Amino acid sequence: MNDVLTEVEKRMAAAVEAYQHELAKLRTGRASLAVVDGIQVDYYGVQTPLNQVATLSVPDPSTITIAPWEPKVLAEVEKAILRSNLGLTPNNDGRVIRLNIPALTEDRRKALVKVAHEVAEGSRNSVRQVRRDGNDRFKQMEKDKEISEDQMHDGHEQVQKLTDTYIDKINSILKKKETEILEV
User: Fold this and answer.
1) What is the value of pTM for the model shown?
2) Is 162 exposed, middle or buried (0-12, 13-18, 19+ CB in 10 A)?
């Protein structure tokens, strides 16, 4: 029973972690390196993550600077940013690329809040799916006479407690992100 509960908790924690990662990609009008996380650069014929070919930094709340380790890579980094559909135009000064993050309009902020709510609902569904899988495992164990009916019900209760805990975590993360997005 403990193995099932441990696996359920690991999977729920992974769902929350994935949710946080998805939310980090949402632009809030404030510079964050998570915005450029998924960018792949053609580095000598190999697709390489941006953070492995350049130093990334946030010198102020509205700018991301990208300083490639090799000057030859500068053009490839610029192309990768343009291909990434970030909606940001890179400013290249020959040594460093600057990405200026524009302030968000009120409508855009509201749209981002809706997106955050959709991502949260997807994560809640993932947690519920893990709950369903855990409950099914307990039912199967009871059916195979590995555990008693009372133990199965105890397992269901413990899985439900874990579910409530992780859904509460998702909701609190959503609240923080919503406040961050709506902050002017």
Assistant:
1) 0.71
2) buried
